[in-house]
């Protein structure tokens, strides 16, 4: 009996004992084996052993649209240092930029601005000049996040700027009195953390914070829970996940904890 003629549950059990190298070699045997081995269910056990494959501890797949085999390959190449070294952009300033790739557009902070560069379709290299520049900060951009409709940036001036990606419009959110170290946004909700030892929750419909949470130290990282769907009506306890430790809510707040 050929390997491809075995029942699928038996095949899954056999393949579960192979490492990623053996699975890759096995997929080169024939088209039938190739299509079977490329299924996400075959790579799920291996993916849990790698970092940044999108498989959480409880088995949830965060990036189901990307084949799991490709994510394992990228994770292994990252671990082994297998990559192409190139300098897409270069300038004389020593400030470490914040950058994010969105499709074929690279957003890159440069001092007080955020510049958007397109990738050339023929070579995959960045175009020399940005096609869009988002500005407005009076100091360096410390962090920015992208949504489908907005680019949200926090700066050393303590301000948060909400730039529309579809029209020439910018909303300023003022509340922090020191640099904004971290941001996150989801479904019209914005969460920010600052050196001023506060975390603030904002909505896109108001320039005033919806809630302010005092912390015991500067805030380096914030994240809106990925399981949260109804952001507008969610309680403060369900919105935030703060890094490093548990943080009890400040005076006047509901009792509870934030986790990361």
From TrEMBL:
Record-linked SMART domains: FBOX, WD40
Q: Which GO terms describe its cellular component?
A: SCF ubiquitin ligase complex
Q: Which Pfam families match?
A: F-box-like, WD40
Any keyword Cell inner membrane?
no
Give me any GO biological process, just one: SCF-dependent proteasomal ubiquitin-dependent protein catabolic process
Q: Which UniProt keywords apply?
A: WD repeat
- WD repeat spans: 173-212
All copies of the F-box domain together span: 1-46
State what protein this is by name: F-box and WD repeat domain containing 4
